[in-house]
Structure formats: structure tokens, C-alpha cells
Design brief:
It is built from 39 helices and 26 strands. It is α/β, with parallel strands linked by helices.
């Protein structure tokens, strides 16, 4: 049970706002004026003191807001006290416009604590639009949530959306919900899915991803069909949500942030204009773990039948208990009164339960108890593979299913389980290992939804298998997802060795027959049923053409980091030594199963360094022997083995030309590469818009030691030059992983010029993103090979921030000495940065001298933006260190004018500095006593006194 205190705030004039408030009857309201002067500072400084990475003291901010709203007649305190014993939840529905709406109402604080920390009743501030909205009854069933994560290619940081999904499921384990996942990240696919269900089917639509501003309009980053970034405004999201749920959660940074100091509606607020009734968003960038924890707590409440307002109150309190930095940024926008419970409590009579969630044992063979797969929470990565495979399974009319293939331990069975989770309209039947016609028929008869006649047809020994399957599968409902797991067991072996024909594995006669029968029956049934095959080897049979083939590659980048974090959390804190963890990650080479094996060793108590390293080495050998038949390598042609040995120079997947550059004999290279891929000796990374990438796993290094090229340094030089051309000179953009690989190879091959160029680019990017130690380490590695002025410059920038000032000064001076005359822009930047160091040390004259040199250079080369920055720095020194306010203000005016012409957001920052310098000038001219009189006159709105005092200041 909840009650709502409606609070409407509207500016009447520049000095006053009107407050209207009522409980139930909008015509029975009370009104009174409130002076804006009391919170003018909060309004003016919202962008700098609140909407910033480290906001001002939130309790102090909240107390100022509360005191202003409560005022001398204690309206808010009395309202809370009057309702305290009449309700469980008090919703403070605050309707405000313009800059008042931009204030952090969630931080309201009565001097004892934040209002959101209260219980009996819970108190929840929300942002409200006055509208008529009926109070809908709760659905007598489990909560239904439609979850879509968006993670466009090239957008960083990559969010841990699998963990958010998993945390939601874990938090609702005792109060289960139905969580349907839309995997594409594409609004068109989201619309298609929503349109497939009745209105009101989903209670909540949860979009998790990044949000930003595009031309000062809030947008959500969704995905195109190929995984690229698409910037979707509220109107486009509204068109996708054709059947609006009762709650929308935009779990993305800045979805609740109103641009232009509140003059433009936030993305969440704009969705109210698209017909949404309740929208949750975040007021600025938020930490990924905190966003995930908030989602988990919120859904734990909603699933029990709690009102959204109560679930939000519990979320605030949980985040505060966890000392979450960003708790106050979570905002609920409402059109009309708060919605009631979305669903009934768990034990309500006749309540429809949620379907059973995916579990670890979902993909075990029910008879043999084989093939464990991860839960949703522990499953990571494979987003693009999931998208491609789901597209093939759902919509490809020319395919009967999907083949997942690749080296052992990469997670083929886990991906198959994840795909089955995403196909709830199919009944999944799993077959593990060797195919057998009669055993398969028996399994289908036992587990498929067949009647007696259909079972008899299937078990008739006189009928050919393909015709029996066509007849029976044509009548089965729901459609089947037939999973053939560990299909490599169906290839012929002789004395334990894999049999090859033309260098490729040979499929057994029995398996070929059954596979052909299944393909025939599914094709004849117009693809109602689907086949999902996992195999260590790629299939080289006619039926494979009807399967969408998806190779699995190792986990890398963000996906690998997520997997490591999960393994770390499974161990006792401090049990894993970081240097040994790094070695385990290197040895595993992105293979999830090997990584798990090695982390088991890292977490064992009582082992010293030497024992851990010894056991890790033994485990790596055991793993290699379990997945890689070395006899298979020996049976290959020498040219293929030599290609693999040369390819080991690369430590990331590379395009075909990068492999071709290493091979003298390229005549049969494509044939060798296809064969190595089919055998799992080369891992393939599918690219949405580019060519495939290839990678020789480091597990091959020891078996191929005898094939290694004689001159490793020469090979590294060749690889450096090749990737430099492909990924740097000829490419539109290069990823960090690609640049680090070029740099690593350049160091190994002693290619100093390329190492310096790449290091400069990376170090500059890292310093700009506050990754100072990484930038310094990379620069020092490079300088050991090539003493380049550009690298020295970036090293000095990093050292300055890290507090290594003497070293930074030395490196700045070395960089300037080595800087050629045609690099005036680089030298001007060095002078500017060095001047900042001297300014911080109090050497003002030297700082100004260097700033003037930098300014002259920037003017000579037409660097107007750099000129604006230097003018602003000089102005602050002149004002605050030398008291020359007139020159300082002139410099700041020139700087602001330049930045406004460039439409730079820094123009507002310079204007704020100008206002501060002007204030300091007035303070100095008036003296402290009269300056305080001026402040009081401003707060009271006494224009005559203000003009008189300012006139006195100008007269001086």
C-alpha cells in the first residue's frame, strides 16, 4: 500500500518558484512561493558539483534541497509525519521544469539521513508528469522481463551484460521470473519479438547498454544487423516498443541525464512522451557493477509482487549499504501516479509459475550424465557467434541448423546450451557421442512428444530411417531442436588414431547415414525442426552445406577478462597470486576449459610458487594431449606444419594476407589453411564486416618445435611490417589489441621506427584516458629500443601525473631537444605541458615564459584550439598569482571566443573560470566586508544595493 505526495515546482520569475502540493485530489492543493536564492548555488553548480565524477558532499546537497523544500513552515516534515502510520510507502512525486528538474532530488536529506534510507514508511522521490493513468491490477503469474543487451562493435568499455543477466536470475532464484533475452541488440529484432506476443505479455522491458548525446539529443547505442553502432533516440525506441510494458528500465549511463543543464529532456523522460508510463534511468555515467547490482535488487523486489516504488526504495537502500558510489543516480520517471504491483505474490492461489530456469545440468545426457555446461551467470562472451547462430536457426530457410566446431575446451557444448536457452519454443533433445540409427530412433520414441502410432512408425525396422523420420517429424509439435554433441566421436579411428582421407577426418558410415536421414527429414518438413551439431572437426560431407558453420575461437579481450573475474570470485580473497594468475592466463591462451583447470591449481592451499608452476605445466601437457592428437600433426604435409609453426609468431588472430606473408611457397596455402581449420589446428574468428581472422594456438608450439623458422627476429620483422601495413597504413582504424601486437612484434624484430610510432599513439590515448602507468611502462619499453622524441613526450606526460616530476622535466627537455623543426605542434604542446609543471611548483615567471613560447608557436602554425588552452592557463596564473585581473580577463575572453567559434564544450568551462576571476577581482576591489554585503544583497534580490556595490567596485 502506498500514498503519493504530489509536489509541483514551477518558476514564477527569476527569483521565485511556486510550490503546489496535494495528496489525492489535484483540485485540493496548497500553494506557496519559494525563493530561488536559497538553492541558486545548487542550480548554478549542478553541472560542476553534482553531475561530475566526484560530486560534492551528497548529504550536504540533500540537506540544502530538503531545507528549501521544507521551508520555515516545515511542510515536508509535517506531511511525512501525518502519513507515517497510514502507509508503507510514501512516494514524493516531484514535477519540476527546466533547471529545477535538473536538481538531484534523490539525495533529499533531513539532517538525520537520506529520505530513501527511511522505513515505515519507505520514502521514494520520483520525477513525475501530471497525467491520468488507470491503476492496473497485478497479473496472477510470475514476473515477465524482456532483456536486451546492446554491445556494438568498437564501443568501449564492453559491458558485463551476461553478469547483469545472471545476477538478476540469481536474485530471483526463490521468487522465479520469466527472463526472455533478445540477443541481437537490434531494435528491429526487439520490435519483431514484442509483436510476436499479446499486449501486456511483458511486464518490464530492460535495455542495458551505453547511452550518450548526439547533437545534444540523448540517444541509446543499439546495434545494426551486423553489430555496428546505431544511435537511437527516444522516438525510435518508442516505435520498437509497440506494446508498451508497465515499466521500462534503461540500464545505461546518462539515460536519466537532461542535457543543456536540464533544458532538454533526458532519454527516460522523453520516453514518457512516447507513451511510456514508468521509466528508470541513470543520471550520468555509472559503474557497471553498481548498475548490475541495482538491477538484481530491483527485480528481486518486483518478482515478489512489490510495487515498483517499494522495489526502488529497497534498491536505494541496498546500494547505500554496499557503499555504492552512484546510488543516487538511479531515477524513476512517471507519467501519472505510481503503478501498483506488476504481479501477485508467489503463493497466490492460481498463480502461473515461471518456466524452470536454465541450470548446470540442462545439457547433461540424461542417461550418461555427461557434458556439464555453465549457468547463465557463468557463461561469458560469444555474443557475435550467438547472434549469427540464432539468425541461422530462426530465419535461414536454406539451412537445417548449425555446426559449431573448433578445438576442444573452447565451449562448443556451452554455446549449444546457450542457444537452446534462446529457443524456448523448441523442445531440446540431446545426443552425445557416436550416432546409432536404432538407438536414436529409441531415444526419439522415448523423449519426443509422440503418440503411440508415431512411436510404432519410428520403431518399425522395415522402414528406411529417412522416411520414418520424415513421417514422424512432420507430425511432432512443438518443433524439436536436435543436438548432436561431441560429434567428433563419429569419425573413423584405427588403433586410437584418427583416420584421414586427403588429410581430412573420415566420417563413419553409420554416422553418415543417420546424418543424411536427419537432414532429409528436416528439409522435407520445411525446416520446422532444427539440428545443432558440435564437433572438434569441421564436417566434409554433402549434408554440411545445409548447416550454418560457426567456428569457435579463444576468448579474448573483454570476454576473457569477464571469465577471469568469475574464476577469481570463486576463490578465497588473496588466494591467487597475481603474477601466477597472469602466467595461467598466458598458458591458457583464451581456452576456457584450460583456464578453469589452471585456476583450480592456483586456488589450492599449501602450494608454493614452484609447486604451482610445476602443476600448471603438467596440466597444460595433459590438456594438450586430451584435445590434440600429435599423430594428426605428423600426418600432415611438411608445408602445412611449417605454415603453422610460422603462424605462431602472431599472438592475436590475423587476416589471411598476414599468414601468406610468412610463407615462401603460397601455392597450396589456402588448401593447407582450410585443412588446418577443419582439423582444429587453426582457430577462426568470424568478422561481421571484414574477412575472417586466423590463429595458431600456442598449444602447438611444443609439437611444432622442430618446424620453427631458423631466424625468429627476421620472422618478427616481416610480421611487424605486414601488420603495420594491414592494420595501420591501410586500415581506417585499429583496435588496441592490434596496435599492441604490432608493437610487440616491432620490439621482437628490432623495428624501432614502427615501435615508436605505435607507442606514441597508444601512450597518448592512455594518458588522455588516465591510464598513466600503462603509458609510462609502454614508453620505457620502447625507449630501450628507440630514443624517439614523441615517446619521450608521452612518457613525460604520464610521469608528471604520477608525481615523478623531476623525471618528467628531464624527459620534456630531452624531447624538445630531439624534436625536429617541422614538428612545431608537438614542441608547442611540450612547452605548454612543461610550463604547467613549473606553475605547480610556484615558478610563475618561468611558467609564463614557456607558455608564451608555446603560444607563439601555436599562432605560427594556426593551432587556434591549442592557443585557447594556453591563453586560459596563462590567465589563471596572471589573476591568482600576480593579481593582473585585467589582462587575465582579456585572455579568457579571447579564449572563450575561440572555443565558441569552434563549438567546443570547453567554452562553458572557460566562461566559468572567467566568472570566478571576475568575482575574485570584485572581492579584492571591495574588500571582504563589502564583498559579504554584496553576497547578501544578491541572495535577497536587492538589485539597488547590488548595483551600488558593483558600481563602487568599478569606480575603484
Amino acid at each position: 500500500m502506498s500514498q503519493t505526495l504530489h509536489i509541483a515546482l514551477k518558476p514564477l520569475d527569476p527569483a521565485t518558484a511556486e510550490l503546489r502540493y496535494y495528496f489525492d485530489n489535484p483540485n485540493d492543493y496548497q500553494a506557496r512561493p519559494l525563493p530561488l536564492a536559497a538553492i541558486q548555488k545548487l542550480i548554478d553548480r549542478a553541472e560542476t558539483d553534482y553531475y561530475t565524477l566526484l560530486p560534492a558532499d551528497l548529504a550536504q546537497t540533500g540537506q540544502q534541497l530538503y531545507a528549501w523544500l521544507d521551508s520555515a513552515d516545515r511542510f515536508l516534515a509535517q506531511a511525512i509525519e501525518a502519513i507515517r502510520r497510514q502507509t508503507e510507502i510514501l512516494v514524493l512525486a516531484i514535477a519540476a521544469s527546466g533547471r529545477l528538474a535538473h536538481l538531484p532530488w534523490e539525495t533529499l536529506h533531513d539532517g538525520v539521513g537520506f529520505l530513501v534510507q527511511r522505513q515505515n514508511p519507505f520514502i521514494v522521490p520520483v520525477r513525475w508528469q501530471e497525467q491520468k493513468a488507470p491503476l492496473l491490477p497485478p497479473e496472477n503469474r510470475a514476473l515477465r522481463v524482456l532483456f536486451m543487451a546492446t554491445s556494438p562493435l568498437g564501443v568501449e568499455p564492453v559491458l558485463d551484460y551476461e553478469n547483469e543477466e545472471g545476477l538478476i536470475l540469481e536474485a530471483t532464484r526463490k521468487q522465479p521470473l520469466t527472463l526472455m533475452v533478445e540477443e541481437s541488440g537490434d531494435l528491429a529484432e526487439l520490435k519483431n519479438l514484442i509483436d510476436s506476443y499479446d499486449a501486456g505479455y511483458f511486464d518490464v522491458v530492460h535495455l542495458t547498454g551505453h547511452a550518450t548525446l548526439a547533437d545534444q539529443e540523448p540517444v541509446f547505442l543499439t546495434e545494426t544487423e551486423t553489430g555496428g553502432a546505431h544511435y537511437a533516440p527516444a522516438a525510435e525506441i518508442g516505435r520498437a516498443l509497440t506494446r508498451l510494458p508497465r515499466l521500462i528500465f534503461l540500464s545505461g549511463c546518462r539515460t536519466g541525464e537532461a542535457p543543456r543543464a536540464g533544458s532538454v529532456p533526458s532519454l527516460a523522460e522523453a520516453l514518457l512522451g512516447q507513451g511510456a508510463r514508468a521509466v528508470l534511468g541513470w543520471g550520468r555515467p555509472v559503474l557497471d557493477p553498481e548498475a548490475s547490482a541495482a538491477a538484481a535488487t530491483l527485480y528481486a523486489g518486483l518478482a515478489t509482487g512489490a510495487e515498483p516504488a517499494r522495489a526502488l526504495a529497497e534498491t536505494y537502500q541496498a546500494l547505500l549499504e554496499q557503499q555504492a558510489r552512484d546510488w543516487h543516480l538511479l531515477r524513476l520517471y512517471l507519467a501519472g501516479d505510481p503503478p501498483g504491483p506488476l504481479v501477485t505474490p508467489l503463493k497466490t492461489r492460481g498463480r502461473l509459475p515461471a518456466p524452470p530456469p536454465s541450470t548446470e545440468t540442462k545439457f547433461l545426457d540424461p542417461r550418461r550424465q555427461q557434458v556439464k555446461v555453465p549457468t547463465r551467470q557463468s557463461f561469458v562472451g560469444r555474443r557475435r557467434a550467438l547472434q549469427r547462430c540464432l539468425q541461422a536457426l530462426r530465419y535461414a530457410p536454406d539451412k537445417i541448423g548449425v555446426l559449431l566446431y573448433g578445438m576442444g575446451g573452447l565451449g562448443k557444448s556451452s554455446l549449444a546450451a546457450r542457444l537452446a536457452d534462446r529457443l524456448p519454443d523448441y523442445q531440446t533433445l540431446v545426443w552425445v557421442g557416436p550416432l546409432d540409427e536404432f538407438a536414436l530412433a529409441n531415444r526419439l520414441a522415448e523423449e519426443a512428444p509422440l503418440n503411440q502410432a508415431q512411436r510404432e512408425t519410428l520403431l518399425n525396422p522395415q522402414e528406411e530411417l529417412r522416411f520414418k523420420l520424415r513421417t514422424v517429424l512432420g507430425q511432432v509439435d512443438p518443433p524439436l531442436l536436435l543436438v548432436l554433441d561431441d560429434f567428433e566421436a563419429n569419425f573413423e579411428h584405427n588403433d586410437g588414431q584418427l583416420m584421414l582421407r586427403a588429410g581430412l577426418p573420415l566420417l563413419s558410415t553409420e554416422a553418415k547415414k543417420v546424418l543424411a536421414a536427419l537432414a532429409f527429414a528436416i528439409q522435407q518438413g520445411q525446416g520446422r525442426h532444427r539440428l545443432l551439431v558440435t564437433s572438434r572437426y569441421r564436417l566434409d560431407v554433402a549434408e554440411a552445406a545445409a548447416l550454418f558453420q560457426e567456428p569457435l575461437d579463444p576468448l579474448r579481450g573483454a570476454d576473457l577478462a569477464k571469465k577471469v573475474r568469475r574464476l577469481e570470485r570463486a576463490k578465497q580473497p588473496g588466494a591467487i597470486l597475481k603474477e601466477l594468475e597472469a602466467q595461467a592466463i598466458s598458458v591458457a591462451d583464451g581456452n576456457p576449459r584450460l583456464l578453469e583447470w589452471l585456476f583450480e591449481i592456483l586456488g589450492q592451499a599449501g602450494l608454493d610458487h614452484a609447486q604451482i608452476l610445476e602443476r600448471m605445466a603438467a596440466k597444460a601437457v595433459e590438456f594438450r594431449e586430451s584435445i590434440l592428437a600429435e599423430e594428426l600433426l605428423r600426418q600432415q604435409e611438411a608445408a602445412l606444419r611449417q605454415m603453422l609453426a610460422a603462424a605462431l609468431v602472431y599472438q592475436v588472430p590475423v587476416p589471411y594476407p598476414a599468414l601468406a606473408a610468412l610463407c615462401e611457397d603460397r601455392a597450396d596455402l589456402e588448401t593447407h589453411l582450410r585443412r588446418a581449420e577443419a582439423l582444429g589446428l587453426v582457430e577462426v574468428t568470424r568478422q561481421p564486416t571484414e574477412t575472417d581472422l586466423y590463429y595458431a594456438p600456442r598449444l602447438l608450439a611444443e609439437p611444432l618445435a622442430g618446424e620453427a623458422p631458423p631466424d625468429p627476429a627476421a620472422l618478427a620483422r616481416l610480421a611487424t611490417e605486414t601488420l603495420y601495413r594491414l592494420w595501420w597504413q591501410e586500415a581506417d582504424r585499429a583496435s588496441e589489441e592490434q596496435l599492441l601486437e604490432i608493437h610487440r612484434l616491432a620490439l621482437a624484430g628490432q623495428v624501432g621506427e614502427i615501435a615508436a610510432e605505435i607507442a606514441t599513439h597508444l601512450a597518448r590515448r592512455w594518458v588522455n584516458r588516465s591510464r598513466y602507468r600503462e603509458a609510462a611502462d609502454l614508453s620505457r619499453q620502447t625507449l630501450a629500443l628507440a630514443a624517439d622524441y614523441r615517446v619521450l613526450h608521452q612518457l613525460a606526460r604520464a610521469e608528471d601525473t604520477l608525481g615523478q616530476v623531476e623525471s618528467a622535466v628531464q624527459h620534456y627537455r630531452q624531447a624538445m631537444q630531439g624534436c625536429p623543426e617541422d614538428s612545431a605542434g608537438e614542441k608547442a604542446a611540450m612547452l605548454h605541458n612543461l610550463a604547467s609543471i613549473y606553475a605547480n611548483q610556484g615558478q610563475i615567471e618561468e611558467a609564463l615564459r614557456l607558455y608564451r613560447q608555446s603560444l607563439d608557436m601555436k599562432e605560427s602554425i594556426g593551432d587556434v584550439q591549442g592557443k585557447a588552452a594556453t591563453l586560459a592557463m596563462m590567465a589563471q596564473l596572471l589573476a591568482y598569482r600576480q593579481g593582473d585581473f585585467e589582462t587575465a580577463l582579456a585572455y579568457l575572453q579571447e579564449s572563450a571566443a575561440i572555443l565558441e567559434r569552434l563549438k567546443s564544450p570547453d567554452a562553458e568551462t572557460v566562461k566559468r573560470i572567467m566568472a570566478q576571476v571576475y568575482t575574485q577581482q570584485v572581492r579584492q576591489q571591495l574588500g571582504e566586508e563589502k564583498f559579504q554585503q554584496l553576497q547578501a544583497a544578491l541572495a535577497a534580490g536587492d538589485e539597488a544595493q547590488v548595483k551600488a556595490l558593483l558600481g563602487e567596485s568599478a569606480g575603484r
